[in-house]
Amino acid sequence: MDKVTTVTGVAVPLRRSNVDTDQIIPAVFLKRVTKTGYDDGLFHEWRKDPQFILNRPEYAGARILITGSDFGTGSSREHAVWALRDFGFAAVISPKFADIFRGNAGKQGLLAGQVDEATVEQFWAELEASPGMEATVDLEARTVTVGNITAPFEIDDYTRWRLLEGLDDIALTLRDEQAITDFEARRESWRPTTLPAR
Amino acid sequence: MTTDSVSTTTDRPRTLAEKVWASHLVAEGAKGEPDLLYIDLHLVHEVTSPQAFDGLRLAGRPVRRPDLTIATEDHNTPTLAIDKPIAEPTSRKQIETLRANAQEFGIRLHSLGDVEQGIVHVVGPQLGLTMPGITVVCGDSHTSTHGAFGALAMGIGTSEVEHVLATQTLPLKPFKTMAITVEGELKPGVTAKDIILAVIAKIGTGGGQGYVLEYRGSAIRALSMDGRMTICNMSIEAGARAGMVAPDETTYAYLKGRPHAPEGADWDAAVEYWNTLRTDDDALFDAEVYLDANELEPFVTWGTNPGQGVSLSESVPDPATIIDANERAAAERALEYMDLAAGTPMKQIPVDAVFMGSCTNSRLDDLRAFTSIIKGQKKAEGVRVMVVPGSARVRLEAEAEGLDKIVEEFGAEWRFAGCSMCLGMNPDQLAPGERCASTSNRNFEGRQGKGGRTHLVSPLVAAATAIRGTLSSPADLLADGIAVDTEYTGVEGVSA
Ligand code: SF4
Predict the structure, then answer these.
(1) Per the CB < 8 Å rule, is B38 touching A180?
(2) CA B62 to the chain's CA centroid
(3) What is the mean pLDDT of residues B473-482?
(4) Which residue among B156, B355, B358 has the greatest number of ligand 1 atoms within 8 angstroms of its CB, and so is best to mutate?
(5) What count of other Cβ atoms lies within 10 Å of the Cβ of residue A86?
(6) Backbone torsions φ then ψ of B447, nearest 5 degrees
(7) Cα-Cα-Cα-Cα dihedral sign, residues B462, B467, B471, B476
(8) How far is Cα B208 from Cα B291, in angstroms, rounded to an integer?
(9) CB B448 within 8 A of CB B423
(10) Are strands B152-155 and B135-138 parallel, antiparallel or unpaired?
C-alpha cells in the first residue's frame, strides 16, 4: 500500500446523501475474480446518464470526491472502495461515513475524511462555480482546501497513522513476524499439515 | 507479549474456547486492540478466494504456509455430468481461477473428479485434518462445523483470507462464551438437526452474536461426530462466532487412522493434550442456555430464517400473537413469501421437492439415516427428490453400502458431491414458488433458487416427507402402516 500524505487533484462535488454501496457498485460486479479493475462499476447506474457529474469532461482524472452525509451504507462489500480507488479517487470527504465503509477505506489506502455539513455545502458551491477546480487534502495537517476555504477534517489517529505509513493489515501483522516464526518453532508435531497426503 | 508454550496453563478456571484461544496467541493486543492468533488450518474454496490471491499477487507476497492450506471445489460444481465443462461462465471462471491460483501458489487442491473433492466442511474432517485444539478458518460462514472436534473454527471474509494466506495469523477480538447444555435422551426419530433448530428458535438468529457457543450435556455426548458437526454447523445461524464440543472418545475414534491424523508418539502426545481440552468445572460462561432433550420433537421451519421454526406436530404460528413488533412484521413477511396461512398444521404442508445434502447433513450417517427410512419405498408422486453426498468419498462409501441403489429404487436422484441446492450457485435450483423440505441450513428468501420456499428439516423428516409428499416424521409412516427399517435411527417401534 502506498503512503498517503497529501492528495491534490480535481475535486468532484457529489450532491447526494445516503449513497449506499449498491449505488457505488452494483452486486453484479461481485462476480468477478480480481481485486482491481472495478472502475467501470463505479456509480454504474448513475453513469448511464450522460449528465451525471462524473461523465462531464471537466471532471476527468478526478482524485477527490466530496459527497453528502451517510456515504457507504448498506452491504459491506469492499468492492465499493476498490471501485473508487480504481476510478482514480484517493480521498473521499463526507459529513458522515458508514462504519464498515470507513473501515474498508482505511484498509485499502483510501482517505475518508469527515467535514461538517455546512463546510461541505461551501465546498460544493465553490466547486460548482468553477467545475474542474483542484482541491488539496493534507493528511499531515488534517485539512481540506477548496479554493479559498481551508477546513479541518476528522479521521481517527490509528487510520491516519496507517495511511501515512502506508501499512495495510498484512504489513501491520508482519511487523510481528518474529513472534510468528517463534510460535511456529514451538508448534507441536501432532498439529495438522496438508502436505504431503499419506 | 508472546506466550512461552502452546499449551500454557494458568490458575484461573477456563472454558474450552478460552483454552484453545490462549494456546494460539502469537501476540496479545494492547488495550482494545485485537489479539494475533495463529491459524493451524486454512480451508479454501473457489468463491471467496480469488480476490485474496489477487491481493497477494498485487503486493508480491507468497502464501506463508501452503502446508497448512488446502483447497476444494464445492459451491459452483455441477452434480451431474461432472466430466463436462461447466456451462455457467461465472462458475467456470471461479473454478478455473482457483485451479490457476492453487498451481501458482503451491496449494493442494481437490478438483472435481478427485476422491477428496467435496464440500469444504466435509473434506477437512474426512481427511483427519480437523482435530481437537486447533484453529481452523475458511472464507465461509459454516466453518463453525469443525468446532465439533473441539477446534476453534471461524468463518472469515475475503480480506481475512488474504491475511491468513500471507501471515498464517489473524487479528481477532476476544469473544464471550455461552454454554448450551442439552441433557437427557432424544426420543426416537429426533436428531442433532432437531436439537440445533430448537436452540436457534429459542435464542433467535442474533442470540449468539459475539459468543462462542459450547454444546454440552449428555445428549450432545451421545451424538456421533456427524451429529455434532450438524449442530456446530448451524451455530452461525444463531449469529455465533463459532460453536464447539469438547473432544472425547467419540472424537478420537473418528479421527484415528484418518490420512492426516497423528500417528504413534504424536498420537499419544495429542491425546494427552486433547484430554485437557474441557471446560474447567468452575469456569464461568458469560451466558447459559438449557434444553431438555427428552422434550424435543422433530423440528421444522415455517419462515425465512432458521429461527422461525416449530415442532412438526404444531401449526404455522399466528403473527398476531407475536409481541415484538419487528418480529411480528418479519413473521408476516415470511408467511407471505412462504405462502402459508397461520394455523395450518405443519404436517398438512405439501412439498414439491426434497433436498438431502449440504454441509449440515450430507455425511455418511445422514445418508444412512435417510435411506433407512426410504428403503423399499417409493417417493410420493410429483415430488422431486435429490440426494447429494457431501464429498466424493462419502459418495463412494455410501455406494459401498448400496445406499445409491436404495435412493434410485426410491425414485430419487443420486448426485455427485457439492453444495448443490443448498444455495443454488450451480444448476440445482428450485423454480419460483416451489416448496422444498431441505436438510440444509438456510431458509432465506431465494436461497435455493429465486422464489423458492425452503423448510429446514432433519434427514429423517426429509425421508418421511419424500414418501408422504407432505411434511412428515418417521412416526407418521408407522401410523400409515409403513414399516421402516430403523437400524440407524432408533425409530423402531415408535408410535408417538
Ligand atoms: S453446503 Fe451450503 S452452507 Fe455449506 S458450504 Fe456449501 S453453500 Fe455453504
Answers:
(1) yes
(2) 31
(3) 91
(4) B358
(5) 18
(6) -60, -45
(7) negative
(8) 15
(9) yes
(10) parallel
The CA distance from B445 to B379, in Å, is 26
Instruction: Using an 8 Å CB-CB cutoff, list chain A residues near B41.
Output: 192, 194
Cβ contacts of B493-496, under 8 Å, gap ≥ 24: B493/B188, B494/B187, B494/B188, B494/B189, B496/B187, B496/B188, B496/B189
Structure confidence at residue B85 as a pLDDT band (50, 70, 90): confident
H or E element in which residue B211 lies: strand B211-216
A193, pLDDT greater than 50? yes
**Whole-angstrom distance, CA of residue B316 vs CA of residue B300:** 10
Percent helix, strand, coil in chain A (nearest 5)? 40, 20, 40
One-letter amino acid of B493 = G
What are the beta bridge partners of residue B177?
B212
- Reported confidence tier of residue B489, pLDDT bands at 50, 70, 90: low
Cβ atoms of B328 and B319 within 8 Å: the answer is yes
Q: Write phi, then psi, for B269 (nearest 5 degrees).
A: -65, -40
Q: How far is B100 from chain A (nearest CA, A)?
A: 12
In the sheet with B35-38, reading across from the earlier edge strand, the strands are B25-27, B35-38, B169-172
The contacts of residue A62 (CB under 8 Å, 6+ apart) are A9, A10, A11, A12, A54, A87, A88, A89
**Which DSSP helix (H) or strand (E) runs through B159?**
helix B158-167
Give residue for cell 436457534: B200
Take residue A82 and report the three cell numbers written for it.
Answer: 476498490
Rg of chain B taking only CA atoms, in angstroms: 22
Cis ω before A131 (30° cut-off from 0): no
The reported pTM is: 0.90
Comparing B158 with B408, the larger pLDDT belongs to: B408
- Contact by Cβ (8 Å): A192, B41: yes
Report residues whose beta carbon is within 6 angstroms of any ligand 1 atom. Answer: B 74-75, 119, 121, 140, 142, 358-359, 419, 422-423, 440-441
- Is residue A24 within 8 Å of residue A18, measured between CB atoms? no
Q: What is the dihedral of CA B213, B217, B218, B224, to 10 degrees?
A: 10
Q: What string of H, E and C letters represents the secondary structure of B182-197?
A: EECCCCCCCCHHHHHH
Q: What is the pLDDT of residue B2?
A: 37
Q: B356 pairs with which residues across the strands?
A: B387
